[in-house]
Q: What sequence folds into this?
């Protein structure tokens, strides 16, 4: 039984007290202005809202030797690869499209120094570059990179991740694959496109998803109805926003399983996931306020909380 | 003089101090790591987590106590070591084992429970006492082992 990261986990448990609760969210939803939202957040957290980048630096400082934690940033790393290629095509500087935190030295992406990138993204960078130069199909390159990101997350979580990280990788893949398959089915995408865009996982295999995506969306939904993701399929049919919420909530439910642990990386990963969800909730509240959405609409879009 | 008997008895005293002490040192260190994590975020919780850190330190003291009692009983501390047979030496060695073995494992188990208690203190400081009680429950078995070791040491005929 591991006793690693006792220090980091205890620190994270102390930091969990500053995460927003449902009561806090309700106050934020009822706030009348952006200024009131900011003051409520400051009252809870005691300072300006902490970015996910700052949270990442904090947990990484507590567990600097954990390669498992770095898997959490693969999504951002691959996003940054997409940003650098899009910036190259549009002739704009990529810096403002990059998101942080990231495992990459962004200078290597900007300068196309792909040899200097970590193993998990190097070949994808070369292939994506050739693909965008050869086809100029931004959508295809986006889908290819997204699929490769999921594959990298799966491989790394198999190599040096625990059960928790493997489940996280599986869940991320399933959610992304269902969304891609549904969109491709609606847009009647070719098999060659689907083969690049769908990643596949042990729960929803690639071949079956591609086969069903080549038919009408109803065929795909019927296929999903028979899987353990029938609820997700029903929501996807009703509203893509509800499906997105279902995916985020499923990941949060997984994160909750780590909340009672005193050792290991799981509580650290869960805390990072919790702060991402919190940031998303704050963004939703802010945007909904700006567009004058009513209280019920904002409430039904709120993601599940960790605390 | 049968030096083997005396040597075995002294090994018993060493085992009691050694294993119970190692267990306590590891456990106190582990809880200390967790406690430092909480204090780095919220220094006001120092006194609450300190109690939890101290809990698994008792096994080391029990080991020391048994070592002193055993050395005293065989006369090593007084300067006139008893002439022990091999069988008596083995009996003293066996007498030290309860606290040596149970002390080590109970300290480690108590350390883990205390780390969980540190987690309670971090999130709900008002329930700190519950964390202390849960960790203290493990102490029962160290005390039972201490009792058995003391009874054996004082009832082995020399």
A:
């Amino acid at each position: 039984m591991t006793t690693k990261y006792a220090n980091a986990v205890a620190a994270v448990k102390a930091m969990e007290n500053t995460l927003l609760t449902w009561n806090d969210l309700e106050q934020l939803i009822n706030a009348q202005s952006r200024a009131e939202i900011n003051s409520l957040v400051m009252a809870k957290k005691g300072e300006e809202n902490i970015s996910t980048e700052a949270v990442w630096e904090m947990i990484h400082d507590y567990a600097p030797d954990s390669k498992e934690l770095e898997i959490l940033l693969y999504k951002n790393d691959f996003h940054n690869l997409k940003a650098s290629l899009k910036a190259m095509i549009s002739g704009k500087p990529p810096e403002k499209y990059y998101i942080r935190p990231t495992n990459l030295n962004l200078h290597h992406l900007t300068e196309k120094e792909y040899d200097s990138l970590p193993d998990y993204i190097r070949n994808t960078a070369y292939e994506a570059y050739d693909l965008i130069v050869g086809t100029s199909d931004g959508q295809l390159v986006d889908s290819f990179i997204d699929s490769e990101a999921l594959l990298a997350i799966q491989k790394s979580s198999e190599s040096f991740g625990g059960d928790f990280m493997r489940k996280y990788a599986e869940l991320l893949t399933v959610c992304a694959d269902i969304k891609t398959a549904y969109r491709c089915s609606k847009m009647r995408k070719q098999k060659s496109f689907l083969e690049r865009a769908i990643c596949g996982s042990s729960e929803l295999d690639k071949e079956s998803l591609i086969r069903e995506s080549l038919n009408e969306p109803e065929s795909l939904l019927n296929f999903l109805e028979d899987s353990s993701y029938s609820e997700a399929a029903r929501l996807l049919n009703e509203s893509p926003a509800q499906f997105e919420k279902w995916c985020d909530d499923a990941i949060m439910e997984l994160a909750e399983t780590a909340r009672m642990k005193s050792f290991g990386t799981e509580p650290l990963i869960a805390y990072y996931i919790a702060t991402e969800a919190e940031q998303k909730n704050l963004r939703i509240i802010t945007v909904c306020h700006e567009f004058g959405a009513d209280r019920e609409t904002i409430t039904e879009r709120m993601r599940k909380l960790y605390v | 003089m049968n030096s083997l008997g005396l040597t075995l008895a002294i090994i018993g005293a060493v085992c009691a101090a050694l294993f119970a002490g190692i267990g306590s040192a590891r456990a106190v260190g582990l809880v200390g790591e967790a406690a430092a994590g909480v204090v780095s975020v919220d220094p006001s919780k120092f006194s609450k987590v300190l109690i939890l850190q101290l809990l698994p330190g008792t096994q080391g003291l029990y080991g020391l106590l048994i070592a002193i009692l055993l050395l005293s009983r065989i006369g090593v501390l007084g300067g006139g070591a008893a002439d022990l047979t091999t069988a008596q030496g083995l009996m003293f060695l066996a007498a030290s084992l309860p606290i040596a073995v149970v002390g080590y494992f109970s300290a480690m188990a108590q350390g883990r429970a205390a780390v969980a208690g540190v987690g309670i203190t971090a999130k709900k400081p008002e329930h700190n006492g519950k964390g202390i009680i849960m960790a203290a429950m493990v102490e029962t078995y160290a005390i039972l082992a201490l009792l058995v070791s003391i009874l054996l040491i004082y009832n082995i005929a020399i």
Summary: The interface with chain A takes residues 30-31, 33-38, 40-42, 45, 112, 115-116, 118-119, 122-123 of chain B (CB under 8 Å). The radius of gyration of chain B is 19 Å. The mean pLDDT of chain B is 95. Chain B has six helices and no strands.
